[in-house]
Amino acid sequence: MNTSNQEIEVKFLISNLPALLQKIQSLGALMLRPRMLEVNLRFDTHDMKLSERAQVLRLRQDDQAILTFKSPGEIVNGVISRTELEVVVSDFQTTRTILEALGFQVFMTYEKYRQNFKLNDLVASVDEMPYGNFIELEGNSPEHVRATADLLGLDWNQRINLSYTALLGLFNQNTGNTFRDLSFETFSGLRVLPEQLGLAYADLDS
Fold this sequence. Notes:
By secondary structure, the chain is α+β, with helices and mostly antiparallel strands. 22% of the residues lie in helices and 39% in strands.
């Protein structure tokens, strides 16, 4: 993550995950964290005030528990930029209980397998989601992010500035499903097409 509280990032949908990982390795990337499962809980008030204000309150469990707040984002030079505040907490379940005692409730759970790399002086996160594979690039400026996308041979025109939860909403809208959770169990046995997410692959010419 960026050393400041400003998050500048973009995502891409990937068709060939092994080829992408090989490309990252060939560019001399440093692995920051090996592949592991993340479980994320999204919280809101009963009347969804945070979502209404485009704010995010999230509790994540991987090799540690992390509480995150994100402000509404804005698009700057084609890349989403927003304030992100994170703190490591000592106990996932107790933190959930505290949030619920304060009136917040879990409105969705989402899962992914993530591995992080340092590449071109930014963080590249390779995400295996229940509905497809992605790479997320988070850097210090829109220009920095775009330069790294070019280095990886990704089509900048296919960049994604939506959250994974927003993409679930698009999938439901395009398929008539009403999935609440973005979990591997929910999507078990489903073959998700890019157009069902409103996306196109960014690595087809790489």
